[in-house]
Amino acid sequence: MSADDESRFPDALAARDVPPNTVRSNYPEPFASRVAARTKRKLGDRFGLTNFGVNLTCIEPGGVSSMRHSHALQDEFIYVLEGCPVLHANDGPVTLAPGMCAGFKAGTGRAHSLSNPTEEPVWYLEIGDRTPGDEVVYPDDDLDARQENGVWVFRHKDGRLY
Questions:
Q1: Does 73 map to a domain?
Q2: In a domain, 10, yes or no
Q3: How far apart are CA 1 and CA 102, in angstroms?
Q4: What's the CATH code of the domain at 79?
Q5: pLDDT tens digits, residue range 61-94?
Q6: Domain that holds residue 66
Q7: pTM for this one?
C-alpha cells in the first residue's frame, strides 16, 4: 500500500458513525427478505483491512442475522455489545447477553445464526477472515454458496443457480 493509499484511512473513528452498508444482503430471494431487519457497518473496510473483516451489525426486533450456515474455509467470531440475541447453533438455541461471544472454526460444520426475539435492537461485532474460495452450507434451507472469483454464487441444493 502506498503512502497516498494509507493516508485516506483514519487512525480511529466512532463505529456507529460509519454509514450502514447500502447492499442489505447478497442472498437471493426469498432469503434476502428474511434478513431485511439487519444492517451492517463495514468497519474493517474503513481502515483498509484486507486479511479479515469487521462489521458492526444491528438486528432490529424480530430480525435475523443470516440463514443458519457453516463455512468451509472462513473462521467467524461474534461479540455482543447490546441486547440479547439468540444463537441458533448445532446444539440448539442459546440466549446471549452483552459481553458474551461465540466463535465458529471453519470446516467443522458448526452451523450458526442469530435472531432477535426481543423488543430492543441487538448490536454485535462480527469478525471473519477473508479466505478466498470459501463454500457455505445452509443446513436448514435449500441454499448453498460458493465464492467464485471473489463473488458469492448461490445455488439450490440440487445445483441449480438462483
A1: yes
A2: no
A3: 33
A4: 2.60.120.10
A5: 999 999 999 999 999 999 999 999 999 999 999 9
A6: 27-155
A7: 0.92
